[in-house]
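Hi R.,

As promised on Friday, here is the backbone we talked about, encoded as structure tokens. Could you run it through your design pipeline when you get a chance and send me back a sequence?
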């Protein structure tokens, strides 16, 4: 079982908090699509003919692609890889790009899941984040997608903005729930290096985030969404029964995936590689029939650390028997020993089979994982 990720490196405008790879100039979009089609053919062997069960258009803003481009990319992927007839095929879309004709084309091309970059249902939050859509488009995009029969929808929401009250955060979650969206990804606002947000905070033009507010809103969000029937199956992800993201779940289970497009990462079980995060260099290299990436071979300790980090974020937790089978008894025993202080602190539950973070432990997931890492 394998997945394919396609990175579309263009956006209409730069959201203040974003540090993903993208360009706000669309001048290279046609050349990019041609290069991407070339990359698909050059990397046809990467997944060794394994069945591809998920395809994910991420970015950037994939909904900026013309409908014909999405169709062409998917056709090429189908020609070069073995795609499961029931594959989950997700397109990330921004609400301002969503309209009934586009939805019909996306559906026609084979898209069967949408991830909508809503972020907030409040106009002032969207302005603050420098999003390209407004609150009406946020709701409209969900309703239009549902009317088009694309109702396997995930929406992204951001909490912990400096002036976001708990009431406003609650209203965002209840609006998503009342719209009948089966999947939500909820992220705390983070101040990433070299973003407009970081600069504005440094210059005193925007207030800094308040960690305590974010922690409280994280816990409130879990409670409200669980009361509404959503399972927090991963720290930032909530789904109604049967509506988990299959693509992201495969990442968290160390599944193989091929990443296409500038900055995209690939993993085949033993090596990780990442494409150049530069649109012009990506295009130039593929024009010469050459791939442009860096690669590292993962040592057993790297693989184990990645497993610790991703598995502890999931509701199933870390499988100690898997660690025993894959990395040996010494690693399993040491992990259990090191985890005991988090169990005593009620940040984790554990037995011979599993280590699972409690709600309190989820607040410190990154720190706990890092403390359990092996050299
Ligand atoms: S639309 Fe998405 S990728 Fe583009 S700048 Fe905003 S957050 Fe970043």
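Update: got your reply. Pasting your designed sequence below so it's all in one thread:
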């Amino acid at each position: 079982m394998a997945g394919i990720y396609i990175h579309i490196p263009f956006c209409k405008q730069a959201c203040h908090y974003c540090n993903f790879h993208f360009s706000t100039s669309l001048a290279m979009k046609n050349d990019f699509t041609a290069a991407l089609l070339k990359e698909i053919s050059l990397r046809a062997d990467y997944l060794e003919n394994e069945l591809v069960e998920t395809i994910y258009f991420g970015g950037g803003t994939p909904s900026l692609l013309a409908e014909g481009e999405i169709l062409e990319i998917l056709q090429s992927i189908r020609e070069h890889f073995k795609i499961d007839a029931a594959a989950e095929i997700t397109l990330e879309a921004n609400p301002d790009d969503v309209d009934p004709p586009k939805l019909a084309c996306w559906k026609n091309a084979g898209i069967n899941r949408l991830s909508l970059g809503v972020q907030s249902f409040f106009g002032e939050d969207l302005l603050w984040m420098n999003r390209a859509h407004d609150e009406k488009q946020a709701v409209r995009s969900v309703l239009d997608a549902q009317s088009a029969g694309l109702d396997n929808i995930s929406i992204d929401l951001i909490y912990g903005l400096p002036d976001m009250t708990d009431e406003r955060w609650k209203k965002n979650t209840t609006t998503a729930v009342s719209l009948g969206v089966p999947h939500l990804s909820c992220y705390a606002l983070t101040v990433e290096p070299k973003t407009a947000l970081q600069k504005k905070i440094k210059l005193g033009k925007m207030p800094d985030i308040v960690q305590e507010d974010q922690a409280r809103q994280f816990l409130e969000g879990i409670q409200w969404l669980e009361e509404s029937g959503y399972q927090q199956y991963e720290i930032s992800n909530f789904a109604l029964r049967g509506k988990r993201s299959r693509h992201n779940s495969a990442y968290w289970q160390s599944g193989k995936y091929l990443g296409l497009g500038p900055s995209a990462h690939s993993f085949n079980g033993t090596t990780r590689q990442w494409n150049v995060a530069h649109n012009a260099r990506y295009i130039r290299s593929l024009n010469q029939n050459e791939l442009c990436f860096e690669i590292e071979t993962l040592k057993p300790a790297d693989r184990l650390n990645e497993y610790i980090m991703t598995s502890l974020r999931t509701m199933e937790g870390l499988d100690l028997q898997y660690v025993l089978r894959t990395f040996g008894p010494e690693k399993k025993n040491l992990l259990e020993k090191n985890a005991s202080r988090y169990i005593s602190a009620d940040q984790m539950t554990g037995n011979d089979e599993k280590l699972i973070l409690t709600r309190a432990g989820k607040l410190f997931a990154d720190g706990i994982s890092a403390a359990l890492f092996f050299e």
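One thing I noticed while checking it: The chain has a mean pLDDT of 97.

Thanks again,
M.
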